[in-house]
Specification:
Blueprint lengths: L1 E7 L5 H5 L2 H4 L35 H15 L3 H7 L11 E3 L5 E3 L1 H17 L9 E13 L2 E12 L5 E12 L16
Parallel strand pairs: 1-6
Antiparallel strand pairs: 1-2, 2-3, 4-5, 5-6
The structure holds 2-acetamido-2-deoxy-beta-D-glucopyranose (NAG) (2 copies).
């Protein structure tokens, strides 16, 4: 089975999550490279409107439902709705996404495109040459949650237009931090030292 890692709002080293540290930790492990103050410069003022700064404490069930809501919108055709919105309301305005250990991108627009647009566009332009598949259905196989972090392994059925719509199961690991507005955020996890 192919394994693809899809980390969103990732502050902790991927290796820690891959090793399953999150599942047993009551507090998230300390990030090796703690986010610098510069990362917080774009956080909006909290004098009015939604609160982006406090760390909420969700129940396990709440985090599972938030995770499911994300996954429901990741699969076709709901991902098209998110992609068309340009700035998905599932994501915080300053959401930080991560493609791999070194590359991050900030903001609803870029992250909406990456999370939802990437696969939604394939379905709308089926004849375009692409190696990517369309996520059709999913099943969560492992789930861990702590405070406002949800970590899930999910088995998706992807359809590959280039292979006559062959259905291929692909396991995707997601790691999401949620803010007090129930949006996926880049809210850094401050280690308690
Ligand atoms: C999406 O968000 C960006 C950045 O805030 C903004 O410039 C753009 O107009 C928004 N687009 C839509 C369609 O809401
Ligand atoms: C994925 O496809 C397989 C084979 O078609 C099917 O048995 C399975 O139930 C599907 N999984 C989901 C989550 O729909």
């Amino acid at each position: 089975m192919m394994i693809m890692k899809l980390f969103t709002a990732l502050d902790l080293p991927a290796a820690l999550i891959a090793a399953g540290t999150l599942a047993s930790a009551s507090n998230p492990p300390a990030p090796r490279n703690a986010p610098s103050a510069a990362n917080n410069q774009h956080l909006p003022s909290t004098s009015h409107g939604p609160n982006y700064n406090s760390t909420p404490h969700f129940s396990f069930e709440e985090l599972f439902q938030l995770q499911k809501k994300f996954l429901d919108n990741f699969v076709f055709p709901e991902n098209q709705v998110q992609a068309k919105s340009v700035n998905s309301s599932l994501l915080a305005p300053n959401v930080q996404g991560r493609v791999d250990i070194t590359r991050t991108f900030t903001g609803q627009e870029l992250n909406t495109e990456y999370l939802f647009g990437l696969f939604a566009n394939i379905a709308t332009v089926p004849n375009e040459f692409t190696l990517l598949g369309i996520p059709l259905a999913y099943e969560i196989t492992h789930f861990a949650a702590s405070q406002n972090i949800a970590s899930a392994s999910t088995r998706f059925n992807f359809s590959f237009p280039i292979l006559n719509n062959l259905i291929v199961p692909i396991e995707i690991e997601t790691w999401n931090v949620f803010d007090s507005n129930y949006q996926i955020s880049q809210q850094p996890q401050r280690p308690k030292t």
